[in-house]
Specification:
- The protein is an alpha/beta fold.
- Helix content is 31%, strand content 30%.
- The chain is built from ten helices and 13 strands.
- The strands form three sheets. A seven-stranded mixed β-sheet has the order 9-8-7-10-11-13-12, with helices on both faces. It has a four-stranded antiparallel β-sheet with strand order 3-4-5-6, covered by helices on one side.
- The longest helix is centred in the first third of the chain and has 16 residues.
- The protein is globular, with a radius of gyration of 18 Å.
């Protein structure tokens, strides 16, 4: 028994006690590790950075999936870029109105590993016939595909290593290209209190492409340093003005089983504290 220490931040560290190492190996793109912790359960690390845990994954995945889908109101085709653990896929597929999901993951090893050792996160989502799983670089896929989507979800790692491409001008331009009119792009944008540059840079790159660009927040315990930011970009400003009554009706019609997301927290998630508002101004 020992400790595993996240190396994402230069000036502080976050550690989990390791009860058991379930897997550790280098794939084509990442150093992969899955460990078991007495509080967080099983946890996935890529290149020394915590990606998800069984205990708190529902917060991140619910907020990045249900906010854009319920705000859109008529999403039939969804693209997920990244998300090899399958948690985002599982949340998106809860919506019976979603007819097709394309998931683009650069590393087959992540998908295979998580299906074996973290099945409680994907809950069988990889077997859903609505899924088209594509093993490819996200930027390259966006450049080449003729497919179009109502919602694009960037479930990226941090902007280091292979994940950096999902924070590039080319990626954001590609996401804009594949969105149907009125579509929504949402992105993982880190913890702005300790990673302010990540959010500021993404917003600056999205503003020339979309007329409505901001972020919303949720607190995920495993991502230390404060609330996590989710980037939001669309050409349809009305998507952020959907009433609580309408959101509640859509939520009820979808029959969603959630542990964090509720229609009552949807709008308030876009209410930004001053330090975050300054980053996106």
């Amino acid at each position: 028994m020992g400790w595993i220490e996240e190396t994402l931040h230069e000036d502080f560290r976050f550690s989990l006690r390791v009860e058991r190492v379930l897997y550790e190996q280098r794939s084509e793109h990442h150093h992969l590790a899955i460990v078991e912790n007495g509080f967080f359960g099983r946890a996935l690390y890529l290149d020394g950075v915590l990606q998800t845990t069984e205990r708190d994954e529902f917060i991140y995945h619910e907020m990045l999936a249900h906010v854009p889908i319920l705000a859109h109101g008529a999403a039939r085709r969804v693209l997920i870029v990244g998300g090899g653990d399958g948690g985002m896929l599982e949340e998106v597929l809860k919506h019976g109105t979603v007819e097709h999901v394309t998931m683009v993951e650069i590393d087959r090893g992540v998908v295979d590993l998580c299906r074996e050792h973290l099945p409680g996160i994907s809950k069988g989502a990889f077997d859903d016939p609505r899924l088209d799983l594509v093993i490819d670089d996200g930027v390259r896929y966006l450049e080449r595909t003729a497919a179009r989507f109502d919602v694009v979800i960037s479930d990226a790692t941090d902007p280091i290593g292979p994940g950096a491409a999902l924070f590039s001008d080319a990626f954001y331009a590609g996401a804009k290209k594949v969105l149907n009119p009125g579509g929504i792009l949402v992105t993982q944008n880190g913890v702005p209190f300790v990673q302010p540059g990540e959010l500021r840079t993404s917003i600056a790159k999205l503003r020339p492409l979309f007329s409505d660009v901001t972020c919303y927040l949720a607190t995920v315990p495993g991502y230390v340093g404060g609330p996590m930011a989710f980037g939001w970009a669309s050409d349809e400003a009305a998507h952020r003005e959907v009433s609580l009554e309408t959101l509640s009706a859509r939520f009820g019609a979808a029959g969603l089983d959630t542990r964090y997301y509720l229609p009552e927290i949807h709008g308030p998630a876009f209410a930004l504290p001053r330090y975050v508002r300054d980053l996106v101004a």
